[in-house]
Amino acid sequence: MWLRASCELQFEITVPTPLILMLRPRSGAQQWIAREEYAFSPRLHVEEFSDLYGNLCQRLVAPVGAFSIRTQVEVLTADYVDRCPGAEFIEIQNLPQGVLNFLLPSRYCESEQFNHMALEITAGQKLGYDQVACIENWLRNNILYQPGSGDLPVSAVGVNARQVGVCRDLAHLGIALCRALSIPARLVVGYLEGLEPMDMHAWFEAYVGGRWYTFDATPTASPGAYIAIGYGRDAADVAVCNQFGPPASPLKQVVKVEQFFPKDA
Amino acid sequence: MWLRASCELQFEITVPTPLILMLRPRSGAQQWIAREEYAFSPRLHVEEFSDLYGNLCQRLVAPVGAFSIRTQVEVLTADYVDRCPGAEFIEIQNLPQGVLNFLLPSRYCESEQFNHMALEITAGQKLGYDQVACIENWLRNNILYQPGSGDLPVSAVGVNARQVGVCRDLAHLGIALCRALSIPARLVVGYLEGLEPMDMHAWFEAYVGGRWYTFDATPTASPGAYIAIGYGRDAADVAVCNQFGPPASPLKQVVKVEQFFPKDA
Amino acid sequence: MWLRASCELQFEITVPTPLILMLRPRSGAQQWIAREEYAFSPRLHVEEFSDLYGNLCQRLVAPVGAFSIRTQVEVLTADYVDRCPGAEFIEIQNLPQGVLNFLLPSRYCESEQFNHMALEITAGQKLGYDQVACIENWLRNNILYQPGSGDLPVSAVGVNARQVGVCRDLAHLGIALCRALSIPARLVVGYLEGLEPMDMHAWFEAYVGGRWYTFDATPTASPGAYIAIGYGRDAADVAVCNQFGPPASPLKQVVKVEQFFPKDA
Amino acid sequence: MWLRASCELQFEITVPTPLILMLRPRSGAQQWIAREEYAFSPRLHVEEFSDLYGNLCQRLVAPVGAFSIRTQVEVLTADYVDRCPGAEFIEIQNLPQGVLNFLLPSRYCESEQFNHMALEITAGQKLGYDQVACIENWLRNNILYQPGSGDLPVSAVGVNARQVGVCRDLAHLGIALCRALSIPARLVVGYLEGLEPMDMHAWFEAYVGGRWYTFDATPTASPGAYIAIGYGRDAADVAVCNQFGPPASPLKQVVKVEQFFPKDA
């Protein structure tokens, strides 16, 4: 399906502020970036680079005063996120090297704390995809989803204690539970059509059956309509906007996502 | 300056043909990709990846029949390509590791054959930028520039023998001469406004004074107005379109580049 | 100085157990690997790969029964770890891309929690090296060093609460404090001659003045005599031995480090 | 089998000479580096880094006077190089990204010139491994093997014209023929037990059936006994010793390889 998504960030900057943005999605497994715009006001020098995970990042110093960022993409995405019940668990020794990294505990996914709980939740499941689907289902039934983006991220241990969380929190707990089962898992940040209220979204992917599959424990999870912007171990790696120095505020963030039909279709 | 550039490729495919394209420029030192479109007709599955040099490449299998590719970019480029007479030669032991690769001979730049000639051309020059500028100048005066894109690339040895070449050929000879002086040099393929007749363009960069500088020995060289699409050791690494299997023909390639003034400027 | 270091790990394996080891140091800024041995008993198939940080890792499946690993290196290290009081803070916008990653919070270094504390500790210091030296000193005076390697790592927040920790814990808190000041910092695991009791050691590096510098808040810190084995964001990234599946025990770990004088010296 | 191999290089240096060496083999698919030594005389500062292909390289500036390099390895290698007649050709669209690079023409492998010849040689063969085996066989029967290491490398076109070549030349022609068939191929430099006269050896690998396989068209080809040191597109990428500046001579190179039986075996 065709999706048009945009993100606008507005700052009132009081001291020159270094920012690292991650707002340029790349074409990937289930999405093709057909059109894209990316603008800053005022214009300024921006450096673009690929991070450890292949995300395109933009580094700049926001000047004092009103500063805004606007991106828009038109993306052809898969109508349905791939699902594959029964896809097999891949033994550590057979995982591709680039995936091993996603087995390690990370800032918001203290996976080493969840061994017992992960086994309990997935008891009786076939190893692999079905375990992850079972975790996704458990999250949906046991952690109260709270729309919005929260303030500072809460780690998986915290989410599990509170039993409530925003999309990112649910994903973090899901990731920690997967890794506790030796299933590589990573956070994805991006757009999701139909989200209410509309905002950036976060979900997770697990590596089973030889590839990454999408999982999303939020009630707004859709059969398709996802646009991935960034991948990483958790929210520490995948911030749409990383600020350094004194916090820049007020910050306004407007996200829009809509389906559309190209004229030539 | 603001440039709008487009490239359209049309094929008549007779058997399913794997293609690897390099048609998505990245933001870089002197360019910001503000807007971009990329479309295939008919639509098909495309995989995007970064090659060894960080270029974004697209891999697909062109289906039988009429097949076309269309890309368009709007880019804010530096008004003037940076120049820096006097910038110093960097000793091998002080070069960044990522640059060492561009000292080696490559398919179309047999640099190991040009030691004597490179020293002769640059005799009396300060080591570094001035040597490269001298090589650029020598090329302009000694190799007859022939517009167009030629057929198969000719290597530096061949260009030197013929004393005539297209933009890519001049760049290859320039690169070989630089490497012969232990100056890292690489080929750049992209757009240049004002080229006559309009086509894809190729030029080269040399690493002196701690960074890459642009050089272009063609008479159409402009003080600015360049959009880089791909970087590599030579044309073998940087093909806008790499075909595999039986040649797909006829091929029509339409390139346009124009300056424009954004409404909000 | 010349150091000979060895590490022997003995396991009693009850079910085939995937291991990822990090026991092959690489030559680097202040060390040259002159001689190395690496053996498994029984012999088995081992795959070696480089992780995200360039560490050489070994992946294998330990077979049931007695299983041991033995490595030994002879390394020429700098007599004195480089120090550079006054080395400058590098602004975010000027940091090399490969270093940005070490600004982010990580599993055991919740740097986003330490902004206030880091500023307080380093009040009045010149930005850069002197801030890090001040943090190192503060750790030495305020966190009780406890020899040994502890069980599960404790995160910086935990270490700060307990006011006591093993070498790795001190390093984690030091890293979190540096990152809170926008100074890239990373964990190093390796050997240190003279450690009492002898064991693997952990310390940290901070990126100031355009390069990485060594810091070590433990009382056993030596003017030199370090051999680095692995680098990463924190102990989650740099485990000498990562086990998957049911814990393999008992585990015996014997580490030796001694200075020696090569015959031809 | 267990192999002990050593390489000694002796120079008489007249001006300080930057060198880039590739003399530290890594553990890989069919070899485990169990023991290694690496020394310079006189001792000096050496920087080690990984190149584009993952080879460990050493960069240094050789000082004026007698200068020598000595490396020795003890390696457990596979008794037999893997062979797999019938292994299938992998379509371009299904090749791993990291392998695509080895389809391109390179300095000494002008693969774009060999389409017709490659098809002719392999006529009637099953696509994939059998084509490569057929090329290997053709080389053995049609290009006269000349022991020794030659002077400057000759490119595939040159080797084909002369119908005679050293090991590296045969490999270059084999690689060019493979790539002309859209089979990824790369040069390997390393040790081979039993070579007469003993020297460094070069052979090639082709990617079929989902992995790299070893091929060697020289009459000295052995069923096993290979130790790979470096991989690359061709000899331009894989030089055991790359010198910059005026040639350092005389150069003495002593290579030894022998089978041995470890005491504990």
UniProtKB/TrEMBL annotation, chains A, B, C, D:
Record-annotated membrane-spanning stretches: none
Tree of life domain: Bacteria
Transglutaminase-like domain segment(s): 159-219
Family annotation (InterPro entries): Papain-like_cys_pep_sf, Transglutaminase-like
SMART domains listed in its UniProt record: TGc
Protein known as: Transglutaminase family protein
